[in-house]
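Subject: Protein record for review, amino acid sequence with backbone structure tokens
Why sent: The fold of this protein is of interest and is recorded here as tokens.
Enclosed: The protein record, placed directly beneath this head.
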Amino acid sequence: MQKKSFKITCGLKEGYEPDGRLFTFEDAEKVVAGWMNTRLAGNEPIVSGMLQAGTIIFPAPEKAPERVSVTPTVIFTGELSGEEDMSRDDGEVRATLESLASLMKDTLLQESVFVTYLDKHWCV
């Protein structure tokens, strides 16, 4: 069976400063569930998926002596695989993913949120 996978990765710590607010997994869960409820009530398209906790680890030489930044994240993954899902227009799916990513960015006070769909990657 053919499928189209997606992933949205969002940090839970506000900004890059040590004193930035740290959101919880439950905060992110509420954002995703609220987005889904709102879209369903408005008869708008959604994507279903699994929300997981994660960690982004990246070099940050300006943070001496650590030199590496470790940031908690959430990752919302899923795939379109049913007949109805596979017939969805890729532009519509992309817009749906960007809608959720934008809400996560704004609500969880992020500089950017990373989206992957059809092996293409971009930031919101």
